[in-house]
Amino acid sequence: DCAIDGADTGLDVIGGAPRLERLRLRGNRIGAQLGKKTAALLADSLLEVNTRAGLIVKDGAAPTLTGNLFKGNGLFGAYMLAKPQAFRDNRFAAQPTGLKIANLGSDPEIAGNRFDKHEVAILVDKAARPLLSGNILSDNGTALHLYRRADARVEGNRFASNHPAIRVEYSSYPKIAGN
């Protein structure tokens, strides 16, 4: 168990495959940043009330992200600019945007996560093409916003009490089935 608070970036991982478990990244500008092709494991950690983002994944990083709680971060719970190996069983609560997935090549599978009480639970942007499956999205403003060529596959998710459940804009052509 380790707590990091008050930093510009609480944890900046560059390369390698460290195991990061049971961390508390709170009150930083960015809770954690995973980049430069790291294959880190970030598990069972709390990323909360960071002023910009709880987590940023970029620069070819391919981490495994599981069992984390993203809560009350300033702009984003997590911002994906690369494709994680696994992104599952995480919980997102009370942020302007729970999860943002952006840019061509950012095609992760986002599975079995829970998103509650966001302005936008999941924002897919700039030609990203994720697979969103088995997630629960409830009590959000917009549950899923597909914007600017966002061609997501949306399968087997549960949408409840969102306003609206899905918004599709600007040349996005998602495949939506079985939700």
Q: Per the principal axes of the C-alpha atoms, what is the gross shape?
A: globular
| Fraction in helix | under 10%
Radius of gyration: 15 Å
Widest sheet: strand ordering: 1-4-7-10-13-16-19-22
Structural class, judged by helices and strands?
A: mainly beta
Strand content range: over 45%
pLDDT < 50 stretches: none
* Multimerization status: single chain
**Strands, total number:** 24
Q: What's the story with the biggest beta sheet?
A: 8 strands, parallel
- In round numbers, the mean pLDDT is 96
Task: Give the structure's gist in a few sentences.
By secondary structure, this protein is mainly beta.
Question: Layout of SSEs?
Answer:
Layout: E1 2-4, E2 9-14, E3 19-21, E4 23-26, E5 30-35, E6 41-43, E7 46-48, E8 53-57, E9 64-66, E10 69-71, E11 76-80, E12 86-88, E13 91-93, E14 97-102, E15 109-111, E16 114-116, E17 120-125, E18 131-133, E19 136-138, E20 142-146, E21 153-155, E22 158-160, E23 166-168, E24 175-177
Parallel strand pairs: 1-4, 2-5, 3-6, 4-7, 5-8, 6-9, 7-10, 8-11, 9-12, 10-13, 11-14, 12-15, 13-16, 14-17, 15-18, 16-19, 17-20, 18-21, 19-22, 20-23, 21-24
Question: Can you walk me through this structure?
Answer:
By secondary structure, this protein is mostly beta strands. Helices cover 0% and strands 51% of the residues. The chain is built from no helices and 24 strands. It has strands at 2-4, 9-14, 19-21, 23-26, 30-35, 41-43, 46-48, 53-57, 64-66, 69-71, 76-80, 86-88, 91-93, 97-102, 109-111, 114-116, 120-125, 131-133, 136-138, 142-146, 153-155, 158-160, 166-168, 175-177. The strands form 3 sheets. It has an 8-stranded parallel β-sheet with strand order 1-4-7-10-13-16-19-22, with no helix packed on it. Strands 2-5-8-11-14-17-20-23 form an 8-stranded parallel β-sheet, with no helix packed on it.
